[in-house]
Amino acid sequence: MVYKLLIVDDSKVSRMMIRNKVSQLQPDWDVLEAGTGDEAVALVRAHGPDFITMDVNMPGISGFDAVAQIRAFDQHSRIAMLTANIQESSRARASDLNVTFVQKPATEPAIRQALDYFLAQS
Amino acid sequence: MTLTELELDALVEVFNVGVGQAASALSQLAGDTVRLNVPKVEMLTKQGVSSELTAQGAGRICAVKQEFSGVLNTEAVLMFPVQQSLQLVQMMVGDDVPLEQLGEMEQEALAEIGNILLNSVVSGVADVLKLRFEGSLPCVALGPVQDVLGAQGSLDDMVLSLQIDFAIDALEIQGFLVFMLDVESVASLKSTVRAFLESLS
Amino acid sequence: MNAPLTPGCDCPPWSAWVLDHLQLGLLVLDAEQRVVFANRWFLQHTGLTAPALLQRQLDEVFEQLKGSAFLYSLTQAVASGFPTLLSQTLHPAPFPLYLSAAQRDQDKLLRQSIRIIPAGLSQVGSMDQRYTFIQITDVTQSVMRERLLKAQASKLKALANVDVLTGLGNRRLLDDSLPQLVRLVGKQGAALSLVMFDIDYFKQFNDTYGHLAGDDCLRQVAGVLRQVFRRPADLVVRFGGEELVAVLPETELDDALALANQVLQQVRDLAIVNAGSRVAKVVTLSAGVAVLQPGTASTPMNLLQQVDQVMYAAKSAGRNQVCWQPEAQ
Lengths: 122, 201, 329
Fold this sequence. Notes:
The complex is a heterotrimer. By secondary structure, chain A is an alpha/beta fold. Helices cover 45% and strands 21% of the residues of chain A.
């Protein structure tokens, strides 16, 4: 099935690396990119992606703020938050926002973990 | 010759992969979760690095140095302010007794910590950029940052400089990792990073 | 004894002899980390023979290595190809190495500093496979020497804080300790009292009886202070020639005054004759008390100035008495 993925990260290279890995594992998917939280919210409104990878640590509004804004109008997309500091991202927060946390840096195992989460049968 | 914004950005990502491996290895050693992050990569002169460290109040540093050779030849120098080096060793050794100064035994412990970090980082870089390196054993140097960096070559030489955020338990310290690169190595690095970026598009 | 060197290799005739007789432990592992060489030093200090080791992996031979940091480091080193150091500090004795059978019985392990050196890119070409060698140095002597040096340095430091004549702390100790004690007033919310004592007509005492008698008098007075201010947190120092200071954490004015008066009485009771005194027949003290209350900003310098002034007030008021100032300003 052709899914739509939105990659959100302030680092262009990070976005490139994630896109590259995803396109190796899921070549048919439609991949969008956003460089800031605000851009991400706008893109979600406009395109309604199925899946989102969201960097936690960004200038401007943080990944958490962006997710909160998105969840206000979109409950169906699956979101994987990428963070270098998994401790801070507690389980409570994860279930509050209905997201999963993935350890940065975005190596292949990390991306696979995100994809497994996205594709899991509910 | 210098690296572009995008190339430096790529190096941040590449180093973070390496540093992630270092964090695993150090966590094993410490028996506690170690978190490492590289927030910034820059090309600076040795003098520039020295000024930055001094401005942070870290005039006297403890350094672990290793040489790596291959497609790139570099001397890697990992630096922490002396006080923080003490705290780091203390944390790893797990002693309650505060260390007054870095004796021979503590310096060896620091050499091991630096060795693990440097080997993991360069190993990670080698994996991502598909490079091969040979390494060397670590050696420890103590003193004012200008003396440690300026021991060979001149303070005007360019280096690749990474800030490293190091956190273990309640301890948070900041170190610098500097790669001395000669002109050919900078060129090699640049073309390797370009090739890497191209492979992603 | 060990696997013979590759026939036809052009190693100098002394190679095997040197490797075997090096005064440190040497192990060579093949590409699967099986032992292909263990030198004499290693065999002697483990009490093992070559057949016990050859063609086996280290954690097969040494149970204690299973799941150890050493094994983890070995795996990392082989994977990365980078030389690796294991310090004695973080891994005191990974291998069961002893100086002698007697020491083995007493479980006196040798302290080990280890280097793991995998064959690098440039060496692999000249060898049939990627070997790794492990070098183990006995650093037990160094460790003992460091410990001794540290203990001596500690002692020296303690001595540097002591006044030789009286055995009380000295000015340096006071200067080092006071800032923290002042800070604790705010943190713990408990008052800090300072009492400064000065021996009355001490110059005259020395002129009359000589300096040796003066020294002895000081020692006796110090003894009284030590006896009266006995709590572990109390600090008593010789501040100057004939001035002594007591620093009393978590002590209010009333208690400080009571203790100061107790000291004065006990010194009078020493009955050290002082013909040079114009206020008594024996050696007496003047004392000043200053108290720092929580919530009052002050510095060690301020506090010392306060107590100094108050002590001089006692002098002006006729000596052989205690004066006080309730709040440090």
